[in-house]
Amino acid sequence: MDDLEEVPFEEFENYSYDMEYYLPESELEEKVHLGAVHWVSVGLYCLAFVLGVPGNAIVIWFTAFKWKKTVATLWFLNLAIADFIFVLFLPLYISYVALNFHWPFGIWLCKANSFIAQLNMFASVFFLTVISLDRYVRLIHPVVSHRHRTLKNSLIVIILVWLLASLMGGPALYFRDTVEFNNHTVCFNNFHENDPDLRLMRHRVLTWVKFIVGYLFPLITMSICYSCLLFQVKKLSIVISSKHFWTVLAVVIAFLICWTPYHLFSIWELTIHHNSYFTQMLQVGIPVSTGLAFLNSCLNPILYVLISKKFQVRFRASVAEILKYTLWEVSCSGTVSEQLRHSENKNLCLMETAQ
């Protein structure tokens, strides 16, 4: 950290206030006063946290403990786990922006926070891709599905997805760093290494890998799966559950709407290295697109409840079962208490009679 403190702030390509987002050179002084755009982003973060924690917790509770273990429930369980872990870390982001981009939590939480964000992004899109592939194979190739679509194989796929998502989020653990400047501690991606060419190369490589692996390839895969699925369903007159189909499709569309602006601004941000003309537009677009991306973590459980009739039926049945069990416990405890009191009164009467 000593070499960082000797470098003037102008030598930092940018500083980040979210995952791997950057703000332009020597703009920290202008960001001391939190603008309206940042309040909008803070509002989106808070909304994602308030809705995401209970929503994903409910999905995890029912898919993990209340419902029968199936391949489909395992996919959605792990999707909810990825979102739930991420929203638990959102208060750190909220504090960072609310404190005028001051990071008081130390370098390890700076690294961990960014890693969790990247892990959530890649795990979510990978599980959505797996769900799309699983849906296609199950309906169009039932023989192959019956042979290979087992809980054991699904667990292997789940482990591979988490390992791949962790690998893709790994650079955040390596490059994320903190630096003191004007009584502010900034959490940023330390790409500079006193070599502008190396800094630019790392920025470009990580941005394009994130876009291709975490967005473009999954988007193409999901688009092909659903296009082929619709074509085959019409061609072969296959009867499918429209509610389940629209639930999965809505989850995918929500991911695209929430994450597309983020990836576009991430690529657009690469132009800062050569041209700062769009600096102000990026300063507005990056925080808003970031908040929109974070909002995706609370949308999935909402979509399950609003669209999936099967989820609604299971949810109501599970809640009714819990209430019934709770009332039964209360009733039993009340009966036992009455019996104990009756027994105590009876013994007291016998003692008085004996005396």
Automatic annotation (TrEMBL):
Q: Where are the transmembrane segments?
A: 36-62, 74-94, 114-133, 154-175, 208-233, 245-264, 284-307
Name its cellular compartments: Cell membrane
Can you tell me which family this protein belongs to?
A: Belongs to the chemokine-like receptor (CMKLR) family.
Q: Which PROSITE patterns match?
A: G_PROTEIN_RECEP_F1_1 (PS00237), G_PROTEIN_RECEP_F1_2 (PS50262)
Q: What is this protein called?
A: Chemerin-like receptor 2
What InterPro entries does the database record attribute to this sequence? CML2, Formyl_rcpt-rel, GPCR_Rhodpsn, GPCR_Rhodpsn_7TM
Which keywords appear in this protein's UniProt record, sorted alphabetically? Cell membrane, Disulfide bond, G-protein coupled receptor, Glycoprotein, Membrane, Receptor, Transducer, Transmembrane, Transmembrane helix
What GO biological process term is on the record, naming one?
positive regulation of cytosolic calcium ion concentration
Q: What is its main location?
A: membrane
According to its record, how does it sit in the membrane? Multi-pass membrane protein
Q: Which GO terms describe its molecular function?
A: complement receptor activity; G protein-coupled receptor activity
Q: Which GO terms describe its cellular component?
A: plasma membrane
Q: Note the superkingdom of the native organism.
A: Eukaryota
Organism of origin is: Orycteropus afer afer
List, for all copies, the residue spans of the domain called G-protein coupled receptors family 1 profile: 55-304
